[in-house]
Amino acid sequence: NGPFQSAFLMRDQPLSLLDIAQMNLSRHQFAFLSACETAVGDFSMHDEVIHLAAGLQFARVKSIV
User: Fold this and answer.
1) What is the Cα gyration radius of the chain?
2) What is the largest CA-CA distance in the chain?
3) CHAT domain: from which residue to which, for each copy (predicted)?
4) Across the strands, what pairs with 9?
5) Could you read off the pLDDT of 6-64 as tens digits, one per residue?
6) Of 6, 26, 41, 61, which is least packed with CB atoms within 10 Å of its CB?
7) Can you say how many angstroms the Cα of residue 59 is from the centroid of all Cα atoms in its chain?
8) Backbone conformation region of residue 60, classed left if phi is above 0, alpha if psi is from -120 to 50, else beta
């Protein structure tokens, strides 16, 4: 696995951290992440530099819980 390989599992295909980082989600006011590990990096993957919640922040979502 390389950097940006974390992903949300969607119905049709995974939504990767790279996909999220390339989006402009600034019109979205709120994101609620109900999975326990979405705001935690994976310490076993040393090249995974940011977690999914941070990716949403980079995509300019206003608030993330």
Assistant:
1) 11
2) 34
3) 5-63
4) 14
5) 788 889 999 888 898 889 999 999 988 876 655 555 555 555 567 788 888 989 999 98
6) 26
7) 9
8) left
